[in-house]
Design goal:
The chain has one domain: Calycin beta-barrel core domain (Lipocalin), CATH 2.40.128. The chain has 3 helices and 11 strands. A hairpin with a 3-residue loop joins strand 8 and strand 9.
Length: about 220
C-alpha cells in the first residue's frame, strides 16, 4: 500500500515503539510495518527478487488479461490467521493474529481487519479496493485516523499491492489457494524503510484460513 503524504512519520514512530529495542536502530531509518495489513522481509536478496517481479508504480494500470472483479472476488469472505514480520536476516520480530473480512458494495470491495500483536494490542483497519481512472487502488484507514493507499496490479491469478515513496518501498503479493481440505489466503512481501546504509529491510509472510460458510474449497457461500 502507498502511504499518503504526511502520514509516513506517524507510521514510522508507531513501528519503532512496537519493535524490540535490539531491532530498532538508533538511526534515521523509517518504518511503518507494525500495522500494515494486512497486507507476508526476508534477506535483501529476496527483496530484490520480489522487486524485479513488481517493478510497478502507482501509475501502473490493471492487467487487462485478468478480469478485475474476479481477481478481487476470490478474497471475499472471512479469514483468520497469522501475519509475521522478519528482519533481513530471518529473525522474527513481530507476529500478528489477524481477522479479515472482505465484501462487495456495488463496484467497491470493502474490507475490515482486526490485528492483535503479542502484547494484546488491537488495531482495527478499514479498507476500500476500487478502480480510479483505470487503476486499481486500495485505500486504508486505521482506527487512529491514519490513512494510506497502495497501487494494485493483477499478474496471472496473483494480486500485488505496492507503494514507493522517498523513504519507503513496499510490495505485497496476495493469492488464494484452494485444496480439498480448505482454502488459504497467502501473503508474501517486503519493505525497505530509510535510505542508503541507514535503510532497514523486512520480509512479510501471512497465512490465513477461510472461516465460516464456504470455508472448504467445495463449500458454498462467501463466508
Amino acid at each position: 500500500m502507498i502511504e499518503i503524504a504526511g502520514d509516513a512519520d506517524n507510521d514510522i514512530r508507531s513501528m519503532r515503539q512496537r519493535l524490540p529495542a535490539d531491532v530498532v536502530r538508533t538511526s534515521s531509518a523509517r518504518h511503518r510495518l507494525d500495522r500494515s495489513s494486512p497486507t507476508a522481509m526476508r534477506c535483501l536478496a529476496a527483496a530484490a527478487v520480489l522487486m524485479l517481479f513488481t517493478a510497478s508504480t502507482p501509475a501502473d494500470t490493471v492487467s487487462p488479461e485478468v478480469p478485475l472483479r474476479g481477481a478481487l472476488d476470490v478474497f471475499t469472505g472471512r479469514w483468520e490467521g497469522a501475519f509475521k514480520v522478519f528482519t533481513h536476516d530471518g529473525r522474527l520480530v513481530n507476529e500478528l493474529h489477524v481477522k479479515q473480512h472482505y465484501w462487495s458494495e456495488g463496484k467497491i470491495q470493502r474490507g475490515r481487519f482486526v490485528e492483535r500483536d503479542g502484547s494484546g494490542r488491537i488495531v482495527t483497519v478499514e479498507a476500500r479496493n476500487l478502480v480510479e481512472q483505470g487503476r486499481l487502488v486500495c485505500r486504508v484507514r486505521k482506527d487512529n485516523g491514519e490513512t494510506s493507499a497502495h497501487a494494485g496490479r493483477v499478474t496471472d491469478s496473483d494480486l500485488f499491492w505496492s507503494r514507493r515513496g522517498a523513504d519507503v518501498v513496499e510490495c505485497f503479493r496476495e493469492r488464494v489457494v484452494k485444496t480439498d481440505a480448505d482454502t488459504t489466503y497467502l501473503i508474501n512481501g517486503f519493505g525497505v524503510y530509510g535510505r542508503g546504509d541507514e535503510a532497514s529491510h523486512f520480509y512479510f509472510e501471512g497465512r490465513y484460513r477461510k472461516v465460516g460458510a464456504g470455508s472448504r474449497a467445495g463449500g458454498g457461500g462467501n463466508g
